[in-house]
């Protein structure tokens, strides 16, 4: 019998150390470490190797396999035109730059730091190519850096499945080339864009000297969340030394910095400008948005929460002793069915709320907690000025029922979301991330548990990666945010009773 590839429990620490050594970021959560182990086991299986020591021997003798190991230890998540408002900022900045040029001169330079497989860099290229069509003397250069050499190779090839077109705004489709015959089902970009995009394998934790022509814009989005605070400070400091004095630093929506301590001006949506006199020697980095996002919010009419592994404790910490003006709270907690009702009863007691019935079409009441007790989805919809429960036997989502995404998407489909507060707590997988993004796009206030306090930073990480979360923190910090929002005036229009 042929032995299967395996990694012993006592070798997990080796994987963690390799992550820090090769990528600059240690897989410091169980979910991240497990993902790395699965990736390495897949490589071992392809090579017919059964032990970690034999695989690492192969890596030491083969530079190309070392690249595959780095790839296995790297978090891969990127999409076209992710956090689209940043591309509006890019267009405006590039257009002003082009309009100020009287003749062809140095190109407009952009860095995509943490470029993964290239979708972000090429999204930038599509916008800048459109600007170039309007200003013939305008030229640009895009650099993409990523620690994973396999991802860098993918980016340099610039060949993607044609389903990518659905994520690319239609005005840019004229720069996309569809394959035929042997390349049927694939797309690439116009050569004018590809030749202006340059990729290299480089870690953001490596020090680098100031360059001769600083970048007009640096994109460093949804990357910093994987590093420790002291590493983040160093990364930001190095990036700033290569930013033009009139340039922009663009971070992910969940990655906020204290602008004043950088000598920066915050421009909203995690965009920052660097005055010529800015000092970059010190920085206080805050990876979570501690400010109440967007003062248009009023007292919420409903609170929706999703959680999984570790969520029972997090829920109790976040909802302990809720005030008397609490709106209906609907929770989806992944939990074994025999324990669902007893946990709901305990949580309601801890929160000092009444436990409501999850029966179909039941009207949701203030100061009540609602959960599914059995194998069915729960959603919500409006009935007049009230919210009602809507149960469903639709198939599981993400292999679970009830699913957080079912609840969130039901709210996004039927309900004006601006008076809604939505939260994802610790849990494995990605349930709830898509629904939270849909709700945020419709005006809901969104927040997630942070990595340090999560038992498994899976579901919150997915939401953060999609740009769906406006605020991240410990259960206690999330509780404080909820209490702040509950103290806001209640909206007068279309209020749920």
Question: What topology does this entry show?
Answer:
Elements: H1 12-23, H2 30-47, H3 52-61, H4 63-72, H5 85-99, E1 108-113, H6 119-134, E2 140-146, H7 149-157, E3 160-161, E4 176-178, E5 186-189, H8 191-194, E6 197-201, E7 215-220, H9 229-240, E8 243-251, E9 256-257, H10 259-262, E10 265-266, E11 271-273, E12 285-286, E13 302-307, H11 311-319, E14 329-333, H12 337-351, E15 354-355, E16 368-371, E17 377-383, E18 386-392, H13 404-414, E19 420-424, H14 433-441, E20 445-449, H15 459-465, E21 471-473, H16 475-486
Helix pairs in contact: 3-4, 5-6, 11-12, 11-16, 13-14, 14-15
Structural class: alpha/beta
What's the CATH first level of the largest domain? Alpha Beta
Largest sheet: 7 strands, mixed
Radius of gyration: 24 Å
* Overall pLDDT score: 84
Distance between the termini: 66 Å
Determine the CATH topology of the largest domain: Rossmann fold
**Tally of structural domains:** 3
Q: Helical content, roughly? A: 25-40%
Please identify, by name, the CATH architecture of the largest domain.
3-Layer(aba) Sandwich
């Amino acid at each position: 019998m042929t032995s299967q590839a395996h990694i012993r429990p006592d070798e997990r620490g080796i994987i963690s150390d390799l992550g820090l050594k090769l990528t600059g970021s240690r897989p410091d959560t169980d979910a991240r470490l497990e993902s790395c182990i699965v990736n390495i086991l897949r490589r071992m299986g392809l090579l017919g190797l059964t032990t970690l020591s034999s695989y690492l021997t192969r890596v030491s003798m083969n530079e190309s396999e070392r690249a595959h190991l780095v790839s296995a230890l790297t978090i891969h998540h990127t999409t076209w035109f992710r956090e689209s408002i940043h591309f509006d900022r890019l267009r405006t900045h590039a257009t002003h730059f082009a309009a100020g040029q009287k003749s062809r001169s140095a190109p407009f330079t952009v860095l995509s730091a943490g470029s993964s497989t290239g979708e972000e860099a090429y999204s930038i290229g599509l916008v800048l190519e459109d600007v170039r069509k309007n200003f013939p003397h305008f030229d640009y250069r895009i650099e993409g850096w990523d620690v994973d050499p396999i991802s860098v190779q993918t980016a340099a090839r610039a060949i993607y499945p044609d389903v990518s077109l659905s994520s690319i705004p239609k005005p840019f489709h004229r720069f996309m080339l569809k394959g035929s015959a042997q390349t049927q089902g694939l797309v690439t970009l116009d050569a004018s864009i590809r030749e202006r995009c340059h990729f290299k394998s480089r870690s953001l934790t490596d020090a680098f000297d100031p360059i001769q022509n600083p970048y007009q814009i640096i994109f460093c989005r949804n990357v910093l969340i994987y590093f420790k605070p002291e590493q983040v400070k160093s990364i930001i400091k190095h990036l700033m030394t290569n930013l033009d004095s009139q340039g922009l630093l663009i971070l992910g929506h969940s990655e906020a910095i204290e602008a004043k301590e950088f000598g920066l001006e915050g421009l909203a949506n995690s965009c920052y400008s660097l005055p010529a006199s800015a000092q970059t020697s010190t920085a206080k980095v805050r990876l979570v948005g501690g400010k109440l996002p967007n003062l248009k919010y009023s007292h919420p009419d409903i609170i929706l929460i999703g959680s999984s592994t570790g969520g029972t404790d997090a829920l109790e910490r976040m909802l302990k002793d809720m005030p008397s003006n609490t709106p209906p709270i609907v929770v989806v907690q992944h939990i074994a069915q025999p324990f669902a009702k007893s946990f709901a009863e305990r949580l309601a007691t801890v929160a000092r709320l009444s436990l409501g019935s999850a029966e179909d079409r039941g009207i949701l009441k203030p100061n009540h907690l609602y959960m599914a007790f059995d194998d069915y989805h729960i959603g919500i919809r409006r009935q007049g000025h009230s919210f009602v429960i809507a149960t469903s036997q639709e198939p599981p989502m993400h292999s679970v029922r009830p699913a957080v995404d079912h609840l969130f998407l039901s709210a996004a489909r039927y309900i004006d979301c601006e008076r809604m507060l939505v939260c994802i707590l610790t849990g494995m997988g990605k349930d709830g991330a898509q629904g939270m993004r849909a709700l945020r796009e419709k005006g809901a206030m969104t927040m997630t548990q942070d990595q340090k306090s999560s038992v498994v930073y899976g579901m919150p990480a997915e939401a953060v990666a999609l740009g769906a979360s406006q605020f991240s923190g410990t259960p206690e910090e999330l509780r404080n945010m909820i209490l702040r929002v509950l103290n806001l005036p209640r909206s007068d229009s279309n209020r749920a009773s």
